[in-house]
Structures are given as structure tokens and as C-alpha cells.
Amino acid sequence: MRIGNGYDFHRLVAGRRLVLGGVEIPYHLGLLGHSDADLLTHAITDALLGAACLGDIGQHFPPGDPQWKDVSSLLLLEKVCTLVRERGLAVGNVDAVVVAERPKLAPHIPKIRQSLAGVLGLPLDRLSVKATTQEGLGPIGEGQAMACYAVVLLEEAA
Ligand code: MG
């Protein structure tokens, strides 16, 4: 078994869509980034790369590379899943926590889990997404940014 962890942080700005786990969430601000800035998907992707010892998301998908501009981060996750499988590894389970003051994410979590489980080829009971706030403190608490932490377990494929 192998464990990997991933972390991501993006600013919230006007004029961008808010996409988490491939699901668009209605909100007046969105995450700033080169791709769709889906920090939940980025954190999980980085955790997968970490568990497989394959470097990090920035190495595989350099920010500024025009082919990743505004692309759905689910595509990046899918590519990394293929790399992981090619290494003879299979995803055991995923647990992620999104740190965001607003909007309330709880109503969107079922759809987000379904979206990510579909890409990862995992049953829902192996894909956990949680949300928490920063108690109003710091840039996240003031609604200027979001962060995400993820851990992934990989197993040698049978
Ligand atoms: Mg990112």
C-alpha cells in the first residue's frame, strides 16, 4: 500500500466560475488559475502523484502551458489515473477536505463525490469529500481564497 497527500490553494475573484470536483457551484466569485482552478481535483491529483512517487501536478501540467488553459481539471485527473494504473497501482480510497468560508458546500457534496468517483472509477463509499471553514480568520476566512487537503491510498493492483 502507498499513501499520498495533496494540497492546493487558489484565490477567489470576480469573473470566474467556481468549479469543485468538476461541478460548477453557483457563486458570485470563482477560483483564479490557468485551468479551471478546481482546487479539489488538483489536490486529489497531486495526492495520486505523490502516492505513486511520480512528481507533482506542476511538473505534469505546467501552469502557462497553453494546452491546459481553461481546461477541465477532471481531464488532468483522468490522465494521472492512467499513469497510476500503468504503474500497476489501483486507488483504494480518497479523502479530501475543502476549506472555504462561503458558499456553503454541503448541499453540493453528493454531486461532487459522484463526479470524482466517476473519473476515478471508485464506488462512492471509497470517495470522501468534506468541507470546513476557517472560522472567519485569515484570507480563507475573509472569503478571499479557498484551500484543499487530500489523501489517497494506492494498492498494488491484483
Ligand atoms: Mg491548483
At CATH's second level, what is the architecture? 2-Layer Sandwich
Proportion of helical residues: 25-40%
In CATH, the topology is named 60s Ribosomal Protein L30, Chain: A
The succession of helices and strands, N to C, reads EEEEHHHEHEHE
Mean pLDDT: 96
Rg = 15 Å
The strand line-up of the biggest sheet is: 4-1-7-5-6
The largest β sheet comes out as:
5 strands, mixed
Catalogue the unreliable spans: none
Q: CATH homologous superfamily?
A: 2-C-methyl-D-erythritol 2,4-cyclodiphosphate synthase
The geometry reads as: globular
Number of strands: 7
List keywords for this structure.
single chain, 158 residues, alpha+beta, 60s Ribosomal Protein L30, Chain: A, five-stranded mixed beta sheet, two-stranded antiparallel sheet, 5 helices, 7 strands, 31% strand, binds magnesium ion
